[in-house]
Fold this protein.
Amino acid sequence: WQPEFAVQLVEHQVHGTSIELASARLTLLKLKAENRLASLAELILTTLEAQLPSTAAVGINRLAERAAHGSECIELLDALPPLVDISRYGTSRDMTLSHLVELVEQLAVQAALALPFAVRNLNDEESQRFQQAILLGHRQLELAQCPSAIMETWWQALDSICHDDGCDSGARGVSARLLYQAERQSSEQIHTLLQKLLSPSLPLARSKGFFEGFFANASEQLLYDANLRQLTNNWLMALDEQSFIEALPLLRRVFGSLDAMERRRLLDNMLQGDNIESIDHVVAQFVEQMPVTFSRILRLM
C-alpha cells in the first residue's frame, strides 16, 4: 500500500463505486482508444489476470477487429508474444480461448507473407528492431505449437529473406541462423551463404550486419562447428587494419555473450594443433608485442 493510492481511489470513483467496477470501466475506455495490436493484447492479458472476463471479452473482439485491418509487419510480429501468452493463459486458468488460437495463426500468416518485403531498405535502428521481432515472434510461434501448415509459411518467409540480396543483411543473418538451428538448411548451404556474405569483396557494413544477425546471442555455435569457425576466421583475416578496427565493437558485442570458459574453449579450438604450451602463454606473448591501446582492447574482449 502506498499513501497516494488513497488519492487515486477518490479520483477514480467517477468510474464506479467499487474497485472492480471502476477498473472494468476504465479499462474499457483504454481498449476503445488503443489501436496498436501489441498494446491491446497486453491490456487483455491484464484484464484476465485481474479476473475481469467481461472486459476481456470486449477487448478480444476489439483485437480481432484491429487484426483484420492490420498491415504493418512489425505490428503483427509485436502482437504475437502477448497473444500467445493469452492463449496459453486460458489453458492454465480453465478458460476457453480457442478463437484466440485462430487469431494467432491468422497474424502469423499475415506477418510471414509481409516479412520478406518489410525487411528491405532498413536503417540500422530498423534492422535491429526487426531482428529482435523475428527472434521473439519465432520463439512464440514455437510455444504456440501452431499447425505445420502455418509454420511452413513462416519457414518459407525466412528462407526467402535468407536468399534475397535485396533484404536487410541483419535480417538475413537471423533468418539463416533460425533455419540452420532447425536443420531446415544443411551445413553445406549455410557455409556457402556465409562464404558469399562474408566475402572480402562485399562492403564491410553489409558483412557486419549479416555476421551480427547470425551470431548475436548464438556465438556458442562457433564452439561446435569447425567450418563456421574457419569461415569466420577467414573473413577476419581478410580485413585490412582499418576495417578490423571498425569491426571490433561488433566482435565485442557478439562474443560478449560467451563466458570465460567458453572463450577459452573457443581459443583452444582455434589454436588446436599448434605446438604451444598453453593459451595463456600465447596471449601473454601477443599482448607484450602489441601497443597499449590494442592490449586494452584484447583484455576487454
About this structure: Residues 219 and 255 are 6 Å apart (CA to CA). The first helix runs from residue 4 to 11. The chain has 17 helices and no strands. Confidence is low (pLDDT under 50) at residues 273-279, 289-298.
